[in-house]
Amino acid sequence: MDLPSMVAAWRAAWQSLDPDRVAALYASGATHMSNAVVKRVNRPDGILTGPAEIRAYAAAVAKQIGSFRADITNVIANEETDGGSAAVEYRRIIDGNEREQMRVVEILEWRDGKITACRVFHF
Fold first, then answer.
1. In 29, 94, 96, 104, which residue has its Cα 20 to 30 A from 70's Cα atom?
2. Contact 77, 59 (CB under 8 A)
3. How many helices, marked H, and strands, marked E, lie in the chain?
4. Would you call 13 exposed, middle or buried from its count of C-beta atoms within 10 A (0-12, 13-18, 19+)?
5. Rounded Cα–Cα distance for residues 6 and 12 (Å)
6. Sign (positive/negative) of CA torsion 86, 91, 94, 95?
7. What is the CATH number of the domain that holds 28?
8. 99 φ/ψ sector (left φ>0, alpha ψ -120 to 50, else beta)
């Protein structure tokens, strides 16, 4: 499957579990919303804002799991010269445990090569 460049970068960064690489993808003031934020870092609203908060979250995730894999099953994307958006559906596999994989959809928005908003939905 051919992925939009930002989707490929997003996937590679999160799969690396490198907090600096993850944070580098996000624009100043970017938001990341996920129920996993509530569970993993006890953030009641589930919303992170800016690269520093997103980096701290990615670091917490990296300490809690050994590996993360996003097996992408579908992407609907709209790319423009300076930005775009995508709905990315994938199977989330943590620590190689395929029996407990979870279906996830992430909505990504980006501008000038940086993610401006990410909304994560687990099923």
1. 29
2. no
3. 4, 6
4. buried
5. 10
6. negative
7. 3.10.450.50
8. alpha
- 36's tokens: 């996993």
What is the C-alpha separation between 111 and 69, in angstroms, rounded? Answer: 25
The structural domain count of the chain equals 1
Each residue's pLDDT tens digit, 40-81:
888 999 999 999 999 999 999 999 999 999 999 999 999 988
Helix (H, G, I), strand (E, B) or coil at 108: strand
Provide the strand spans (E) within 2-81.
26-33, 47-49, 68-79
Q: How far apart are CA 92 and CA 98, in angstroms?
A: 9
| Domain span holding position 90 | 5-122
Instruction: Mention every residue, 6+ apart, whose C-beta is less than 8 A from residue 20.
Output: 55
Q: Residues 75-112: pLDDT tens digits? A: 999 998 899 999 999 999 999 999 999 999 999 999 99
Helix (H, G, I), strand (E, B) or coil at 5: helix
